[in-house]
């Protein structure tokens, strides 16, 4: 499963009241799967999942035009973005880990979700969309494309989510499962956990911006579509469609 929202690589992924209590949050799912909050020890494994899952994504390929030329830089920037996300109090990463001694991939971290509680952000950061901005040089990225994409995406996010729901939302910034383990419902489990967290935090709505691939999963979990938009490429020859969705 690859369900992203919207730019890959934790590029600009956007908890304070609940983070300490949630840091030990752990659930045992059917078949011995473990769903828990991520730790710094998970950073490399999360970077591997994100890199593998996002690679087929058209927005990813458009933005990270030089990823094949600079693969080490590309992975390092992903890894450093994960470390940054783990370090800030307004962002929660949750993961699913396979049980040990169950065959191929046992004990592996296979799926990850990133959630933003905007109550931990300044209004400027939330409105600008740059709550987490990568510190990498990003030789893997076409910076002109990235800046244009971010501006267009942030404008739509502001219009359909920030202006409407403000800080009273729990925003799914990223959701990805390693390609070798997709189609097993891991992403759905992470989204359901996020809905539960939102209720615990007292937030009235769960929000996300879905790619076409993710829409069926979110609809099946009870999300509703409230708007559609596309981000066009600089040359106008490509369009990346998105669906703004809510659960309330």
Automatic annotation (TrEMBL):
Keywords: Signal. Residues 33-247 form the N-acetyltransferase domain. Pfam families: Acetyltransf_1 (PF00583). This is N-acetyltransferase domain-containing protein. It comes from the Eukaryota. One of its GO terms (molecular function) is acyltransferase activity, transferring groups other than amino-acyl groups. Residues 1-22 form the signal peptide.
């Amino acid at each position: 499963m690859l369900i992203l929202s919207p730019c890959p690589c934790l590029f600009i992924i956007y908890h304070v009241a609940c983070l300490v209590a949630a840091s030990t949050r752990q659930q045992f799912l059917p078949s011995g799967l473990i769903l828990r909050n991520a730790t710094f020890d998970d950073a490399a494994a999360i970077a591997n999942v994100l890199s593998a899952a996002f690679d087929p994504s058209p927005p990813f390929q458009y933005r990270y035009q030089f990823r094949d030329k600079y693969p080490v830089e590309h992975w390092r920037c992903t890894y450093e973005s994960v470390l940054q996300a783990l370090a800030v109090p307004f962002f929660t990463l949750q993961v699913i880990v396979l049980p040990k001694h169950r065959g191929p991939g046992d004990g592996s971290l296979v799926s990850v979700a990133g959630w933003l509680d905007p109550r931990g952000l300044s209004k400027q950061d939330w409105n600008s969309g740059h709550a987490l901005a990568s510190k990498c040089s990003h030789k893997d990225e076409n910076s002109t494309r990235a800046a244009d994409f971010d501006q267009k995406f942030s404008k739509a996010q502001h219009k359909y989510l920030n202006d409407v729901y403000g800080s009273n939302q729990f925003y799914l910034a990223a959701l990805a499962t390693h390609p070798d383990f997709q189609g097993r419902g891991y992403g759905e489990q992470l989204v359901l956990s996020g809905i539960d967290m939102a209720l615990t935090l007292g937030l009235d709505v769960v929000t996300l911006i879905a790619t076409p691939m993710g829409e069926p999963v979110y609809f099946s979990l009870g999300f509703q579509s409230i708007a559609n938009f596309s981000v066009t490429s600089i040359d106008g020859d490509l369009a990346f469609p998105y669906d703004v969705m809510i659960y309330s």
